[in-house]
Design goal:
Elements: E1 3-8, E2 30-31, H1 32-42, E3 53-57, E4 61-66, E5 72-73, E6 75-82, H2 85-97, E7 100-103, E8 108-109, H3 117-133
Antiparallel strand pairs: 1-6, 1-7, 2-5, 3-4, 4-6, 7-8
Helix pairs in contact: 1-2
Amino acid sequence: MSWDIFIQDLPEGIQSVADIPEDFRPSALGPRSELIAAILEVFPQADFTDPAWGVVDEADFSIEFNMGDRTEVRSIVLHIRGGDSAASAVERLLSHLGRRALDTGTGELFQGGSPSTKGIRRWRAHRDKIVDAD
């Protein structure tokens, strides 16, 4: 179980998921090799032994980068586990890539700054309820 962030082409100027036009078709993000190189600029310790599924392990969090097996990447799904510092790591990555993302913890666009921890905190609360139920 993870907090998932979907990086993809999103329309300019939208403030909410509700603002995405129904007929919007996202463009590809670019070639996998270029995206991996850009991710490595932010996370030089990331392991892309499997180019479709990279991993970075930090002291407070881990991120798996799911890009699929196509050469031209349409989206990157970040599977995140750990503490609040993961949110600022996502913010750094998105800024470096010049992209926006969807936050499954909130059901909205990932927001930088202090609201960015809202999604991971909701995910941890959900995870803790499931773990406590066992």
